[in-house]
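Hi R.,

Here's the chain you asked about this morning:
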Amino acid sequence: MTVSTIDEKPALVVIDLQKGIVSRPSVHPIEDIVANSARLAAAFRERGLPVVLVNAAGTPAGRTEAPARIREFPPDFTELVAELDAQESDHLVTKMTWGAFTNTALHEILQKHGVTQVVVTGIATQFGVESTARSAHEHGYHVVLATDAITSFDAAAHDHTMRNIFPALGQSGTTDELLELLNESR
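And here is the predicted structure, written out as tokens:
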């Protein structure tokens, strides 16, 4: 469903737009994903709305069938990309799982600010973004996915999540549509 409204108290949650992840080849030009996320972050900040920047600093220890996961990362792996223009007013959430709610203070941060809606951007669609959107939905937040500010490393997985999963979790819209709704809600 196309996004219909922006709540009075939304928050922007930006997933894994960090040096160690955005350097990998992605389905959509990463510069566009970062630029759209940065535009949304600037608009949220301008309105005094919470901006949560999430980075991944590890992975859970459990066994998987996937190829061996990296357990040690290069020194700048977790650094957020400069284009996000992180501000002191932003909230940094560091996660060790796919989703930004598990074993972090994200829910408490959102509750402290009276947030009822989360706008989610970032990478990778079917991992961090989807996991965070699922948890947000389960926590009772209205979920909005910024469709042109989300990408993956796998086109089929991205398309599947965008077409089949996200419509069950919330609403979606482009950055321009979301900015227009933000402007109308002033």
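One quick note: The chain is about 35% helix and 20% strand.

Cheers,
M.
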